[in-house]
Amino acid sequence: MESSICPFCHLSLPSAELQWHSNSHFEDEDKEAKYLELANQIQIASSSGSTNVDSISSLIGLQTRGNYYHVKDGLISLLRNCLELEARHNSSITILSGYVDHFHSVPSIDVGWGCGWRNIQMLCSHLLAHRQEAREVLFGGSGFVPDIAFLQRWLEIAWERGFDPPGAQHFNCKIYGTSHWIGTTECASLFRSFGLRARVVDFGPKESEQLFLSVPGSTLGQPVTQRNAVQVSGPMDRYVHRQQDLNKGKHSCDSLGKLSDNSQGKSEGPQVLIDWVWNYFSDKGLTVSSSSQVVVSDRAPLYFQHDGHSRTIIGIQVKNQQNGMRQFNLLILDPAERTFSLERTLKINAGWQKLIKRGVHTIKKPQYQLCYIDPGIASGEELEELKTINSMFFEL
């Protein structure tokens, strides 16, 4: 594969990706002025104690589109073709989300801290493509996925409106222009502020339940009360809050294959998470049969968080083994992987498995957290209730 050197940061990358990468170094000549105006609008909203309609309108007009490497026909379509070819040689059944754009971290912009924002962008790309009600409310009906800077502004607005007070308190309601790590609750807060029904699910050992969004003594798998603001506020929820003082600078965004963890849980623990994901994508109304070995669900992708990194689950595969056992693979888009690499391996149908598939044996972390988005738009009393971030807890 022919490579080229970026004239701005001297990074070596595939020639086909050079133009896209080089453009990412440039800003619109008036973008700085736009950001200053945007900051003034949010300051006005903050000082008045609310985000008024005029301020929000200004933000909508100023926001810019997130930059990403566009794949013709989409990655999901390429992946589906590969999975269908694979299914001819085994008895696998796969359930996929619909269209999703892949947003990868860029060395000159967000490598090491931006995975949470990139996963939010991936979820947004799906919602804008598949859910008309979400398209009408997200980002003022702009119809596109904003860049990280403007997502940060929208999260600040969510906090100003009262969504997730403990998280807002930890960040002092300020995150624009920073490289702070974010996680599942920030993702949920952002989507909930537009009325989307973003839900949070915790997986982990019973003895560590007090560190989760749920509270000690809650019933497993049942909605629980608001998280403790002292114990679990902050970026990446319990993960970064716990690690920052102990291992500051130790963790960074990376693919699962490059992360290690010596924690040992119950042997059946990871299967609890896998089963939940299978049930989520298969849903009650989806018919899965041997005649349709690759099925597209109407379920949105999942924001998938663990200590040190987050990714996007776009589907799940199950294979029936000769011994009668079933082998599961999560299908994941990782912000740490380059979109160009994903596209190339899928087009040649070689090497994509190690970039996208993750088996049960890779679920080694002691704690995980998911965010999923139910259909519909909340309003009135339900919207007020969404300001409190609750979770459902499942023991691993």
UniProtKB/TrEMBL annotation:
Species this chain originates from: Hibiscus syriacus (Rose of Sharon)
Biological classification of the source: Eukaryota, Viridiplantae, Streptophyta, Embryophyta, Tracheophyta
Pfam families according to UniProt: Peptidase_C78
Region annotation Disordered: where it falls in the sequence: 248-268
InterPro entries documented for this protein: UFSP1/2_DUB_cat (IPR012462)
Recorded GO MF terms: ubiquitin-like protein peptidase activity
Domain spans labelled UFSP1/2/DUB catalytic: 91-371
Keyword Cell inner membrane part of the UniProt annotation: no
Keyword vocabulary terms for this entry: Hydrolase
Protein name: SUMO-conjugating enzyme SCE1-like
